[in-house]
Amino acid sequence: MKVEPDQKVRINVKVNGVLHEAEVEPRKLLVDFLRDDLGLTGTKVGCDTTTCGACTILLDGRSVKSCTLLAVQAHGREITTIEGLSSDSKLSPVQEAFKDNFALQCGFCTAGMIVQATFLLSQKKDMTEEEIRDSIHGNICRCTGYQNIVNAIMDASRRMKA
Amino acid sequence: MSYSGKSVKRLYDDKFVTGRSTYVDDLKINALYAAFVRSNYAHAVIKRVHKEDALKMSGVVTVYTGEELNRVIKEGIGPWTTYIDPRPWKIPKWRFAQGEVKYAGEPVAVVLATDKYRARDAAEAITVDYEPVDAVVSMEEAKKDKVLVHKELGTNYGYKNDFVAGNPEKALESADHRKKVEIGNRRLIPSPMEPRGIVASYDGSNLSVWYSTQIPHFARAEFSRIFGIPQSRIRVVMPDVGGGFGSKAHIIPEELAVIASSMMLGKPVRWTATRTEEMMATNSRHNVFRGEIGFNNDGTLVAINGTLEVELGAYLTYTEGIQPTIIPLMIPGPYRVRDLKIESRAIYTNTIPITMYRGASRPEATFIIERLMSTVADELKLDDVTVRERNLVREDQMPYTNPFGLKYDTGDYLTLLREGVKILEYNSMKEWARKEREKGKRVGVGLAYYLEICGFGPWEYAETRVTEDGGVIVAIGGTPHGQGTETAIAQLVADELQVPIERVKVIWGDSDAIPAGTGTYGSRTVSIAGSAAVTASRQVLEKMRRVAARAMKADVEEIEYKNGEFVHKREGKKMRWEEVSRLGYSGKEPGLSASVTLEGDVTFPYGIHMAIVEVDEYGMARVKEYRAYDDIGRVINPALAEGQIHGGGTQAVGQALYELAVINENGQLAVTYADYYVPTAVESPKFKSYFAEKYHPSPYLTKTKGVGEAALIVGPAVIVRALEDATGGKFDFTPVIPEEILKKMK
Ligand code: FES
Ligand code: FES
């Protein structure tokens, strides 16, 4: 498809179970579409080099950095953001575990961390500490020193098995 | 019922784990977006800014340069006069660049547009004609005063002051040994995960600012001074703040431009820094100590004589004046050395302005004195513990006045050292590492000691309000932004009022809701804001006893309060907390609240930390474990306190080994976030954190001292010492990057 400058493209995306039809500029980043167009500000932007993982979401069930995809690339696909991981009355096991293990301080990395952890645990239930550390190395936290985050993910894995 | 001392869960985590947190960029405010045109030159005259193309672009509202902005930005950014005496300083006027740029990255123009893509496009479409002039981008060059950053100052030295105690020359002469030393930290970038941001809205009479800051009330005062608007007409709100580490306690020209634009256009304006911009908004550290020490055969350090140089960058930021004035005072640390001369110098360069960073002065001072202790140990072939044992201030000297007049309040440094060595298993780990090295591995164990000055005054504000339905709102002038101190303060207040903690809500960070405040920095919040909150709570309780007494027709002295009940001692009549709360809002003098402005002064926690470091064949070092034993006074919430050790310790890993803000020969920041190595989960160690059970209290009501900075204060010295053990090299500058390690390994 050829798009002229300033021309917008129509996309259909299902986000947290709700179908959205929208017109977007082809260059619009997915994270900006989620935050600015849909108002889903739970997903954060921490960098401009695909380094920090604050923007992590699930795209068709796989974790991706939404700052590094265009909104148009989400056309016809399903997205889950941090807002979609819990119903208002009930937190997910990962969310619970983050609270119980003091796995957050300023909270800015937390959405990305929880989404990434949710993805990891959907792939593999039993992970060693080293595996967990390896699998979250694309998510930077400046506050916690990671130990409590790693503990929370191990705790969540136990909760999901129980 | 007692909450204090327990790891009570953080009160407000739900919003963070569900994505309902609100940082400044999350605010849904209809505003224009700002984008900045920045200088590529470290020093240049601005000849012309070509706005025409940008102004023709769709969505672009206007473009401002310093000429327009500085009509509104009346005064310059200045130092934090609460902590910095401006008199000995040479201070250039710092507003939005006008006529000249002084560092690469300095904003030259601001574009205002209807969305951020258009704003950034337009910023790129603006060209600027510059006439480059000589720049001085290294501190060594700047010291020569050949090329001046600010001609009008006549020198690059912003500050010169000699801190002298005793007679260091004589002490050096009579010492058994003398040794030249050179120790320092290179420039780094604090990097909170949330880049800074601001939304300003001027409605013709009042200015509202939503601001990612640690100091909303000081910001209000500064905006008032700079823009000439009375404080009563300015509201500064700190939404959720994604980390600060001292780097969100200063104001930058970009933020002034946003406010000025809002005032000129009469519209809300917003700006959130990209990571690249955030990296230019705050650089920190960079200091060098060069001098000579004298020490005796038994390991006692008897003299320190040298020069401390601190880089300022192109301007004096709100916070950087602290470093050259506090580092010297803390160089003696917990040790008895009394003959010192520290010639403290602060130097302007054509580089990104420098600010304080977690620990602010104490990491620098601690790195210097701990490197000196290790130097003495190495020279005399003594071990690190013995040297410290021989130098620590003794318990019977407490309270101890250090050679520069700081009064160390409470502590037993020697006992803590000995206990720490045991608890952290220092000797056995040292032995283990030695054996591992014999097997060919490069592992090492190191320790260092620290004494910290924290809990800074001069005061903090708190109000406790009991609502009509018996709830409790605690409004504090402290500004937690991740530390979880709101939870600790709720614990203290719930204990004081003997009510369930669920009833207590802690609020902060809105200058209209909290009449006064200083903020959260310098590991002070639980001690000073907590003590203020406890004091205010006591006063409210007194008021409630009066209300109960009136209702039960008794004297106040006859009313006893316990666990939610006001009891008439003589008659046995009772009133419940809720009844008294309701009554408190009827009759004359309605309302149940008390505010205090609590004055306070510094306190001195201390501790010993240890690290295990492993180095691979490429010189890549990893901190495998980090252990800490601290006397931080009374511990209100152990899990929160440990969290501070973990976070500070991880930043120490970064400072010691990875984080280097490279400035190239043109004065440009030559790293991106992708190659500026903030530690990830892979590089961060396993932590063990212990707090002294028999703690030494501070004079604060809470008996707490402070823990927010401890691990970054001592950590770099700890890790560097372990690295030396692992490699056999000697390292006196942070970060010790792989190239340098590799050189020493061969
Ligand atoms: S914002 Fe996407 S990786 Fe940093
Ligand atoms: S909690 Fe602050 S960045 Fe992770």
TrEMBL record, chain A:
Domain 2Fe-2S ferredoxin-type: residue ranges: 9-85
Xref: InterPro entries: 2Fe-2S-bd, 2Fe-2S-bd_dom_sf, 2Fe-2S_ferredoxin-like_sf, 2Fe-2S_ferredoxin-type, Beta-grasp_dom_sf, Diverse_Oxidoreductases, Glyceraldehyde_DH_small
Chain segments annotated as transmembrane: none
MF annotations from Gene Ontology: 2 iron, 2 sulfur cluster binding; metal ion binding; oxidoreductase activity
Coiled-coil stretches noted in the UniProt entry, renumbered to this chain: none
Keywords for this protein: 2Fe-2S, Iron, Iron-sulfur, Metal-binding, Oxidoreductase
Any Pfam family: Fer2
Keyword Iron included in the entry's annotation: yes
PROSITE patterns: 2FE2S_FER_2
Stated name of the protein: Aerobic-type carbon monoxide dehydrogenase, small subunit CoxS/CutS-like protein
Record organism: Metallosphaera yellowstonensis MK1
Lineage of the species this protein comes from: Archaea, Thermoproteota, Thermoprotei, Sulfolobales, Sulfolobaceae
UniProtKB/TrEMBL annotation, chain B:
Domain Aldehyde oxidase/xanthine dehydrogenase a/b hammerhead: 18-134
Keywords noted in UniProt: Molybdenum, Oxidoreductase
Pfam annotation, one family: Ald_Xan_dh_C
Gene3D superfamilies for the chain: Aldehyde oxidase/xanthine dehydrogenase, a/b hammerhead, Aldehyde oxidase/xanthine dehydrogenase, molybdopterin binding domain
Tree of life domain: Archaea
Range of residues in the leader sequence: none
GO molecular function: iron ion binding; oxidoreductase activity
Alphabetical list of InterPro entries matching this protein: Ald_Oxase/Xan_DH_a/b, Ald_Oxase/Xan_DH_a/b_sf, Ald_Oxase/xanthine_DH-like, AldOxase/xan_DH_MoCoBD1, AldOxase/xan_DH_MoCoBD2, AldOxase/xan_DH_Mopterin-bd_sf, Glyceraldehyde_dh-related
Protein name from the UniProt record: Aerobic-type carbon monoxide dehydrogenase, large subunit CoxL/CutL-like protein
Source species: Metallosphaera yellowstonensis MK1
Highest classification ranks of the organism: Archaea, Thermoproteota, Thermoprotei, Sulfolobales, Sulfolobaceae
